[in-house]
Each structure stands twice: as structure tokens, then as C-alpha cells.
Design goal:
The chain is an alpha/beta fold. The protein has helices spanning 5-8, 30-35, 37-42, 78-90, 109-114, 176-192, 219-227, 233-243, 264-268, 301-315, 333-337, 344-356, 386-398, 403-413, 416-419, 450-455, 460-473, 475-479; strands spanning 11-14, 47-50, 54-55, 67-71, 94-100, 128-129, 150-153, 158-161, 196-200, 251-255, 277-279, 322-324, 361-365, 481-485, 492-499, 502-509, 515-518, 528-531, 537-539, 542-545, 550-554. The protein binds alpha-D-glucopyranose (GLC) and calcium ion.
Length: 556
Amino acid sequence: MELSWFKKGTIYQIYPRSFNDSNNDGIGDLRGIIEKLDYLQGLHVDILWLSPIFCSPNDDNGYDISDYCAIMPEFGTMEDFDELLQKTHDRGMRLILDLVANHCSDEHLWFKEAKKSKDNSFRNYFHWRKPAADGGPPNNWKSFFGGSAWEYDSTSGEYYLHLFTKKQPDLNWENPKVREEIYDAMRFWLDKGVDGFRMDVIPLISKRDGYPDAPDVGFRKIIEDVYANGPRLHEYLREMNEKVVSHYDAFSLAEGVGINHNNAGLYINCDRKELNMLYHFDVLECTIVNGKFEEDSPFDLVNLKSIFKRWRDAVHEKGWLANAMGNHDFARMISRFGDDKQYWSASAKMLLIMQSTQNGTLNLYQGDEIGMTNIVLESVGEIKDVQSLNFYNENLETKRYPKELALEMINKEGRDNARTPVQWNDEINGGFSIANPWLKVNPNYLDINVKKQDKDPDSILNFYRGLLKIRKEHDVFVYGDFEEIEFNNPNMYIYNKMLGNDKITVILNFGSSVIYYKSSGEIDKSTILVNNYETLSVENDTMRLQPYQGVVLKMN
Ligand code: GLC
Ligand code: CA
């Protein structure tokens, strides 16, 4: 396995709109990020991933791009960006951007032109189809955000495809001009010195010939079999790598929607020269059966272990993964996988021990380093995310769930949970802005904030700082071979990792009860490298673990 800066580095995802507002208009911005670079450096993260910062009407908060080579005015100017990039590099960190290549905004010049007439030279930048015989959409494809994936255009009497909102028309990658446009945009940023891209829904760019109807199966399966992994996908990815990424010291991180452990190698095996790494959805969706706001299943530790295991086995030696347990599309990590109440601090720290000792690049999301939790939105008026709003409104029509239940479901799973402003201190709006923020601040900012945790040696924040530093100093955390112990234990996650002469043992109590772990030999307390409690009680070969206690022992 080839070692590399992007494998060992820790990625920290910034959702710029919610990170820090420097000019007090209620919206986070690039200068806001510049103000916090010292904070990020002190956290020992290495690679900053910015969610989209390009011009956008913000139907989907920047994931609908109207100009790939310009900065969204709300976020600042190109000068601000250049300064941010320079200052990130000055601190020894890297910066990657979010490339949305599957679709653009309907307010992009390309689409505005394409809509003008069937013979417009941009028409073929998008997917247009005639209506079905009954005048309805050309097939039964559903948008990820509800409703048909086709929108009727009365000027031409045709439908265009949008797998996301109708303001996000899908680009037609069959058209070589489209591919060149995207490659040019990538070169524009790479030439400035950016260190790579996170590639938004990249498995969706090649559409199936003839746009066949989707079978009547769960939405996850439809994504895998009908929307993602299209016939020309790998040809495009190879071309993109060959023409663009491989010419720079940069990497590509794919959002692995629709990728499973069986076909992952096709994307990331190094000899295929397509993408450098991906994060899959199996962990992020381990409690989600068919899709958001559908039935879900309770968290199951053995299931989580098997997910990690099957992916490890699948990519073994040849491919590389990024490990994420939260991002801007899911509810807060601690509210899903830990305990955001009584054992808030212990469980947040334990989750980091687990994440930082899994194989792959550690991929963190803003605010998790202080244990930010889900928010309760009191009424539909407080919802900002288009996915949640569409679900809510569709449900008003179908009356599938009572309104109160729909809001409850949104509060449990909705994306706004992860998008509330970062809580910097206990002043107005958590120090994010003195203006009214674009999305409500979680009222728990009085308790949960960076300033308070900065001073507290036992805080989640200081635990992150300490552990991320230790991870840097120990290759075994990142590259070690994995050996499971008591795989079927439903309450504890226990494993060894080995690299050369280095060996660590990780022991995690995944619940709120005290639990005993009996080791195969005497436990030597001097081997404790990481512990999320002040003490660890040990008697001979038995360890008594507190609720959500996690330890890493360094065995030599
Ligand atoms: C990705 C993004 C998500 C966005 C969607 C459409 O899944 O992470 O936020 O809504 O793509 O671009
Ligand atoms: Ca601002």
C-alpha cells in the first residue's frame, strides 16, 4: 500500500454557510473561515473540504451552481478565496473544493440558453425527452428530493431530467463539450493551487441508455441499479483523471452514493486510475433502510462492525476509503450513534476513538469536535432544507403521516440538524453572527461551545486535539492491519491493529452500562495510550469499562 499525504491526513469538512460569519449578515463566509484557521490548525486537522462556494441561487445551498469559476457573493470575493488558500497552505494544511459535476443550476447560462429552443447550441448539455404517450413524464424516475425527476418545459414541449430539485438539471456527460467544461473548471481551481475535489454524487453522471423505468424496489436499490454506475461512468472517470487530476499533486474524494463494497474497487483500485478514495453510505445509512423519512432500524453494533469489515476486505491493499460518520446530509453523529444527553461527553470521545482507529482517511464534520447535537425545529417555518421541506409539503398532499409526525421525522433525520451554525461561544447566536442567522442556532450553545471547551482540559474539543495529534504520530492507527476480537459481542467493539512492530488494542464500550472485558493476559496499565475517562479500573486480566468508555493500549 502506497503511503500518501491524503491517506494519513485528517479531512475536516466545512459547511461555509454555517461556519462563521465575518460581516454579520447572518451567513457564514470565506473571511469567517480565515478567522478560524488557527483554530483548525490547533485541532490538528490537515485537509479542509469546503462545501460549494461557487455562485449559486442556493436552492440546495450551493449544490446548484450557476458559475463554476466564481465565488458566491454572499461568501466573499475571489481575493478572499486566494487569501484563504494561501493562509491554509501557510499553516501546512490543504484545501479541497466540492465539485458538483452531475448537475448545475437552472440559472446557469448553459441551461438558460438550452431552454431557449431545441436547436440552441447548449440544448445537448442536458437530458431532454419527449413526454410519454399520456403527456406525462418520460419514465417513472423519482427525484432524490421527492416527486418526478422530470420537469416539463412548455417552450419546447419536452421534459428535462433533474435527479435532485427541478432547479438542478442534470448535465449530459455524453456530450464531450460538457466534459470539457467541467475539466476546465477543475483546472481553473487546481491551477490556483487547490489540493483536490470532493466529488458530489459522481456515480450518477452516466445515465442508462434509453432511460428505462425503475423497478418497484426500495429507493436505495434503485439508486444502485438505475441511477448510479451507468454504462460509461468508468470511461468518464478515467478521462477526468487522465486529463486533469493526474497532472497535479491533488486527489479526488468521491461521494459514494450507489456504490457498494462489490463494485467499489472499480472506482478506487489504484491501478484503474479513476478516483483516489471514496466515502460510502453504509455506515452513514446503517439505521436507514430504504431512504430518509422511511422506516428505519435501530442501531446495531455488530452490523456496524460487519460494515467496516466487509469494506476493509473489499478494498484491501488496492483502494482507499475515507471514513465519515456525519456530514451536512445527515443528522448529527452524536445524536445518531452516541448519547447526546447523559453520556454526551464520553460517547463523543468514544466515537472519535473508533473513527480514528479505522482504516482509511479520517473525515470529520464541523462541530462534531465539540459534540454539537441535533436541533428541535418547532414549526415548519423553521425548516430551511429543501429535502425536508419537499418531504413535508408532499406529505401534506398525500397525508401519509400526521403533520406532527412529519415534523418529528424531520427533527430526527433532516439535514438541518447538521447545518445549524457552529457554536463558538455563549454570546448572542453562539458567536456565529450578531445578525439573525440564516438557520436557527441550537439553543444549547450556552452549554456547548468552543470557548467553554477550549479552557477545559477534559472537554471533547481537547480530547479531539490530543487524539488527532497522537494519530499523526502513529502510522498504525491509519495503516495497521485489523484483527477483530469478540466480533459478535453486541456491546463492545474490540480490535488489534498491527503495523510492523507496532501494535495497538482498541476496546470500546458502546453503551450506557458498565461492562467487563477479560483479556487473554494480564493488563498492564502503563500501556494506556488513549482513554476517554480519567481512570481505568483493571484487575489482573479484567477491565471494568464505564459507560461509553474507550481505550487504546499500545502493546509495545
Ligand atoms: C450530495 C450533497 C447534497 C446535495 C446533493 C445534490 O449528496 O452532499 O448536499 O443536496 O448531492 O447535489
Ligand atoms: Ca457573512
